């Protein structure tokens, strides 16, 4: 990433994305930190996600992921903001089935203006009937998808 920095905003993964990044030697040179906003109200209060957006459509939507990514990049003064939100299961949330995930990445310029962004919608289908294993698979695949999205933005 050559002098660039990244910050994470996590819901569905509960810190797993940041943990994965920090497991890489030298991560301290690029990783600014992360915010785990598991509760819906924290997405607004900590990351600046629109309260109206959350009230009207819930936390599992593309625009929420984009606003989370922008918010964490701004709060932690990072070049890239990477965010994940979704439903790990076993129950549905806000009309979304388990395995529905939104992954977003924003890139900011030196003045802090977002100059590029991307969001992916995923529909993950765990290969197990065990609810705990299914949650773990969804979360692991979400982390992998987020890192892949970041790589495409570099």
Task: Describe the protein.
- The structure is a single chain.
- The protein has 154 residues and is an alpha/beta fold.
- The protein has a single domain (6-153), classed as CinA-like (Maf protein).
- It contains 5 helices and 5 strands, in the order E-H-E-H-H-H-E-E-E-H.
- It has helices spanning 16-22, 40-45, 51-57, 62-75, 131-153; strands at 6-10, 31-36, 80-86, 100-108, 114-123.
- The chain has a 5-stranded mixed β-sheet with strand order 2-1-3-4-5, sandwiched between helices.
- Helix 1 (16-22) links the parallel strand 1 (6-10) and strand 2 (31-36).
- The radius of gyration is 15 Å and the shape is globular.
- The mean pLDDT is 97.
Please supply descriptive tags for the structure shown above:
5 strands, 154 residues
Task: Estimate what percentage of residues fall within beta strands.
Answer: 15-25%
- N-to-C order of helices and strands: EHEHHHEEEH
Number of contiguous helices: 5
Overall residue-averaged pLDDT value: 97
- Whole-number tally of structural domains: 1
The CATH topology annotation reads as Maf protein
CATH homologous superfamily classification: CinA-like
Structural class determined from secondary elements: alpha/beta
CATH architecture, by name, is Alpha-Beta Complex
Q: What is the share of helical residues? A: 25-40%
Q: Quick one: how many beta strands?
A: 5
Gyration radius, rounded: 15 Å
What is the CATH C level class, in words? Alpha Beta
The major sheet is characterized as:
5 strands, mixed
Q: Which strand order do you get reading across the main beta sheet?
A: 2-1-3-4-5
The global form is globular
Low-confidence stretches: none
Distance between the termini: 7 Å
């Amino acid at each position: 990433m050559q002098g660039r920095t990244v910050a994470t905003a996590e819901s569905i993964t509960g810190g797993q994305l940041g943990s994965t990044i920090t497991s890489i030697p030298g991560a301290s040179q690029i990783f600014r930190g992360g915010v785990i906003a598991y509760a819906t109200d924290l997405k607004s209060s900590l990351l600046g996600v629109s309260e109206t957006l959350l009230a009207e459509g819930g936390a599992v939507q593309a625009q929420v992921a984009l606003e989370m990514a922008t918010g964490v990049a701004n709060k932690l003064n990072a070049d890239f903001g990477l965010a994940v939100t979704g439903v790990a299961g076993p129950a549905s949330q806000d009309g979304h089935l388990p395995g529905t995930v939104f992954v977003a990445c924003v890139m900011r310029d030196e003045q802090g203006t977002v100059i590029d962004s991307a969001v992916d919608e995923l529909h993950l289908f765990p290969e197990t009937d065990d609810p705990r294993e299914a949650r773990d698979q969804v979360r692991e695949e979400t982390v992998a998808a987020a890192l892949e999205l970041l790589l495409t933005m570099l």
